[in-house]
Amino acid sequence: MTQLRQLGRFMQRDEISTATVTDLIVPDRNIGYTKGHETRETILRTALAILIDEGWQAMSMRRIATACGLKLGNLTYHYRTREDLVRELLDAVIASYEREFVPIVQQDGLRPEQRLERYCRLVLDDIPSKKTTRLFPELWALANHDPFVHDRMHELYARARAPLDAIIAEMRPDLPAEHRETLVLFISFAMEGSTVFAGYEKPFVARIGLIKRIAIGSFVDLVRSYTPD
Amino acid sequence: MTQLRQLGRFMQRDEISTATVTDLIVPDRNIGYTKGHETRETILRTALAILIDEGWQAMSMRRIATACGLKLGNLTYHYRTREDLVRELLDAVIASYEREFVPIVQQDGLRPEQRLERYCRLVLDDIPSKKTTRLFPELWALANHDPFVHDRMHELYARARAPLDAIIAEMRPDLPAEHRETLVLFISFAMEGSTVFAGYEKPFVARIGLIKRIAIGSFVDLVRSYTPD
Amino acid sequence: MTQLRQLGRFMQRDEISTATVTDLIVPDRNIGYTKGHETRETILRTALAILIDEGWQAMSMRRIATACGLKLGNLTYHYRTREDLVRELLDAVIASYEREFVPIVQQDGLRPEQRLERYCRLVLDDIPSKKTTRLFPELWALANHDPFVHDRMHELYARARAPLDAIIAEMRPDLPAEHRETLVLFISFAMEGSTVFAGYEKPFVARIGLIKRIAIGSFVDLVRSYTPD
Amino acid sequence: MTQLRQLGRFMQRDEISTATVTDLIVPDRNIGYTKGHETRETILRTALAILIDEGWQAMSMRRIATACGLKLGNLTYHYRTREDLVRELLDAVIASYEREFVPIVQQDGLRPEQRLERYCRLVLDDIPSKKTTRLFPELWALANHDPFVHDRMHELYARARAPLDAIIAEMRPDLPAEHRETLVLFISFAMEGSTVFAGYEKPFVARIGLIKRIAIGSFVDLVRSYTPD
DNA sequence: AATGAATGAGCGTTCATTCAT
DNA sequence: TATGAATGAACGCTCATTCAT
Question: Is there a contact between D121 and D193 (Cβ–Cβ < 8 Å)?
Fold first, then answer.
């Protein structure tokens, strides 16, 4: 349990993998002043990197400040409270996932089955990334005790499920909405569950290929053959 | 973000749901001295209750001590460091899950398909319990940054998968081990994934019945019809 | 003890009672540039309102700035240091009291006793105002640790006593100066003392009428019948 | 305004006048452990000394800790929050005043007028003490924004007025209660008002003798001759 | 087995002030 | 005039840990 503290103590700025999280877009509040905007971007990127590398508890204001090369006082100038920072961070992170996943299945010219397969493949391809593997379990844990995280996270998931719902509606126009939605739900969280087992540095990450095949095959069969009884 | 603090401020000892977690067994190191043993049990039970009710960060030594009615000094007598306490807590929690799940499928006289269904049903029935919904995401997050938690948790999962592996081996003796294991893995984490969406106080907890039916049907189909190609 | 913080959190700009303190006159240092002068006036008025509503500690540069709708940087342009602001604020506040009280007794055609009564009545009428009740105890406390406040405040009191001294000199030309001055002093601080008990929102504010009658009667008797022995 | 900070910076432990405030009685919570009790006594005495010497704002947890020779962590062990400390401090301070003033007039064998004179003399004798001069204005200012201080303080004053009420009831059994109480009130706050003018290091401290004579004479006359009309 | 006492580090936050633009 | 940015110090508080009794 103590390795976190030790990490925090000895880790230098450069060791943090900010490079892996470059797609955060920070709202530009003071148009015309680019400096502050860049600083806020750096802050969020660094905070996310710490969150990913060392976990929620390590992501303290002081830790973020030193990792950014900022003084604590200046960090609180840009984000007056930790809560402000966390909220904007979550907004940015979640927005980045939305940007990534929503346009996935808008590629026309594919049959719905192919689009289903493609959707699942893209989701499962993302699982073993360090960012996803580390970030989401953190969010799941936080969501249990923090309504804001809970709501934002399930909002993201709802949007991520929308294209899947559209695909299945095409494949199975006969299904009542509730059954269709629950199929979508099942497929969605069956894939999410793989994070803990086949994610970054997880025991079965090497088997992700076979897992993917089994999962996608199973999902396609399910959608094809499901009957509400 | 602040609700933890507020909970901590207003929550009284009695409100903690120790009642829901009565099945912890603490190793009795001092045979004959039952008092200390009971105290250690109370400590772990209380710690778990806090972990479940308020999250990992709230589970501080002070918090545990006051919730137990112990003085801090006495708590550190029983568990010299927080790490000691956490390790024994995780051991006890994980052992309790093992006691719960391992004997599940040893009921003879059932066909393997029935046992598969039964296994999945039992696992999914446990998902919406407060204890499971709150505890496991916490473990998943911790496992990302703490090798001890990582190892103990995956050890638990490995044991939990063993009966499923036996069932599928019976159903599909033709399958190579790797394929069989991966099927088991997929079924296992597909169910785990439901925690975040259909667990205690989660948005789709009401739909757990339909989810269960879809999941089990899908798993049975999968095991029956899977071909390694 | 925490209500200040809560006040600070929830109070909006408009709730501050700037309306009650409109009689501040700020020295215009840049004749011709009225904009800055108006800004300085707004700043002082707002600062006073905060001082009255929330106390000395709440009157921070940031708090004043946001309450004024100014940016902190701009506030420090107008008042380079907090000390500058405080000094000018005190000067303005004290000057406003001087403007209020000095002309009180210059109304001719009244007998000295009537003017004494009138003076006391005016002073006592002012006691239950929010401004006076809140401001003066703050000044008394500050004066104990800050020579500037001490000196400015007693300068104000000295000027406020002057008309009273004139009245009593008329009524009792026989009294030696020291005795007359001490009578003035006694009457003066006997009235000041009522602030804490019968001021704004104080326990005996409802009894201010009877208090006034007792006080004035007592003072008139005292001046009439006092003998140095 | 800056001298407070400088005082805080350069003042050493020994310079604080703890000697002037030795009559605080701290509730003994852990019977048997005298060490902690002594520590808490020292803490309150030191806190009071700082409050008197440097004012409310200077009485920070860090300031108190260093002035006591304690570490901050240890101070918060004895008083978990500043609020706890402040409350116990005020309770102790106010209790000490009660111990001092309540038994004043229980000395029998004196005529009521003599007891009235004696009461006023004792109150006025206390005014120029550093402790009283410094402490009460601080309380008055705090009471304006803090209901706890407000209530405790006026509770003290109510008890302090009780003996005076008894005396006047003896002298003037003909007076209705409300008139008697208001007389008491007037006498009481007329004396309190002298704090700001004739207290410790105040401009008219040298004239306290004459003030005392005028005040007491005036009060005796008032009680004797007051008519409700 | 239990308690009180103490330490040192860290937390989030507020603040007065300075300065470049 | 006015704004954004930054600094350094202090604040109240929580924490894991150690130790004498």
Answer: no
SS percent in chain B: helix, strand, coil, step 5: 75, 0, 25
- Residues contacting residue B223 through CB under 8 Å, at least 6 positions apart: B116, B168, B171, B172, B183, B187
Residues B94, B154 contacting (CB under 8 angstroms): no
Is B222's CB within 8 Å of A204's CB? no
Where do the domains of chain C lie? 12-225
- Fill in the amino acid letter for A217: G
Q: How far is Cα D29 from Cα D21, in angstroms, rounded to an integer?
A: 21
Rounded Cα distance, A87 and B1, in Å: 9
Q: Is A129 on the interface with B (CB under 8 A)?
A: no
CA angle C149, C151, C152 (to 5 degrees): 65
Domain D12-225: CATH superfamily is Tetracycline Repressor, domain 2 (1.10.357.10)
HEC secondary structure over D58-84: HCCHHHHHHHHCCCHHHHHHHCCCHHH
pLDDT digits (tens, 9 = 90+) for A9-38: 333 333 455 545 557 877 877 666 778 889
Nearest CA in chain C to D56: C141
| C41-50 burial code (b ≥16 CB/10 A, e <16) | bbbbbbbbbb
DSSP 8-state secondary structure symbol assigned to residue C213: H
Burial of C177 (0-12, 13-18, 19+ CB in 10 A): exposed
pLDDT digits (tens, 9 = 90+) for D51-78: 999 999 999 999 999 999 999 999 999 9
| Alpha helix ranges (H) inside D71-176 | 72-78, 82-101, 112-126, 130-143, 147-171
| B214 inside 8 A of chain A by CB | yes
Q: Do C1 and D146 touch (CB under 8 A)?
A: yes
pLDDT, tens only, D97-135: 888 876 766 667 889 999 999 999 999 999 999 999 999
Q: CB–CB of C46/C16 below 8 Å?
A: yes
| Mean pLDDT within D5-28 | 52
Retrieve residue B67's tokens. Answer: 């919730």
| CA A117 to chain centroid | 20
CA C177 to chain centre: 27
Closest CA to A61 of A86, A28, A90, A37: A86
Distance CA C43, CA B137 (A): 52
- pTM (whole model) above 0.85: yes
Cα D72 to chain center, whole Å? 28
Min Cα–Cα distance to chain B from A96, Å = 21
Q: What phi and psi, each to the nearest 5 degrees, are found at residue B93? A: -65, -45
Q: Which residues 64-83 on chain C approach chain D with CB closer than 8 angstroms?
A: 82-83
By residue count, chain B amounts to 229
Which residue in the block uniquely carries the two structure tokens 């929050």?
A: D81
Q: CA–CA separation, B122 vs B216, rounded Å?
A: 11
Q: Chain D residue closest to C82 (CA)? A: D1
Provide the CA D12 to C1' F16 distance, Å, integer.
Answer: 31
Helix boundaries (H) for A102-146: 112-126, 130-143
In this structure, what token pair is assigned to residue D150?
């407000």
B137–A contact, CB cutoff 8 A: yes
- CB-based contact D54 C145, cutoff 8 Å: yes
Query: Most D CBs within 10 Å: which of C86, C189, C195, as the mutation test of the D interface?
Result: C189
Half-sphere exposure at residue A87, Cβ-oriented, CA atoms within 13 angstroms: 12
* Token pair 């019948």: residue: C225
Alpha carbon distance B177, A167 (integer Å): 34
CA A59 to chain centre: 17
What is the CA C88 to C1' F4 distance in angstroms? Answer: 27
Q: Provide, in whole angstroms, the distance separating residue C36's CA from nucleotide E13's C1'.
A: 32
